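Let us work through a complete example step by step.
Step 1: write down the sequence.
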Amino acid sequence: MRRSLGSCFIAVLLLSGCLTVSDAPEGAEFRLATTTSMRDSGLLDILVEEFESLHGIDVEYVAVGTGAALHLGANGDVDALIVHAPAQEETFVAQGHGVNRTQIAWNAFVLLSPIELPNSLIDAFSLIAEEEHCFVSRGDNSGTHMKEQAVWEHLANTTSIELVHDINGLHPEGDWYYSIGQGMGATINMADEKGCITLTDRGTALQFQPKIDLNRYEFNDTLVHNPYSYLPVNGGNEEASALFLHYLLHEGRQTIANYTINGAPAFYI
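Step 2: predict the structure and record it as tokens.
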């Protein structure tokens, strides 16, 4: 039976310890930290349930931003991660926290917007800054937030757009920019309520679109590529972690490829 590790997220916010091998609940087999986008897209529960059914191993998971997931992994609070911030993942492995990283799926970042946007992601962000159209950022050091900051940084280096760097990361200054420090679902809901623009992944966008008034804008820019990787945590449950990776690359691979939302593919392999 799947258990949530929601208390670990609170611990991450407090920068304190969380579930460890020694105090794991009786019967706990495998602990996974994954992105909120993987959960909010609806795919995570399907993968976990299929794995548990095939292998009889209980999976405990917590869905947080990539930064928080990497923190849990570095503390040894989970056995493996599914995250989507390649540069940070490479650092995680180089520092000895992860055994290796394996790409298991990918999709793309998209913008949800109440106004018409240009065909280029860079042009769209330029328009947002120039018109100071309200924008809702996750502001949580997640993979999506890191991607957003990379776009702002690119604009700062190629245009006259000025940025500030504070506890919310790198971003334009102004009361039109909201940094809320929450997951993807909460960010989309706030953008919808306020008539703002937000950056999200394709899978979560597809899941939310029937319930919101924002239009989805997709781009061909290389910046929007969004790979998801699996990282076993060094010192974690090696056997269960390896088995879950084997599942993701075999039975789960087809599940990922076949997963659609309202008839549209959410992830690619």
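Step 3: interpret the result. Confidence is low (pLDDT under 50) at residues 6-28.
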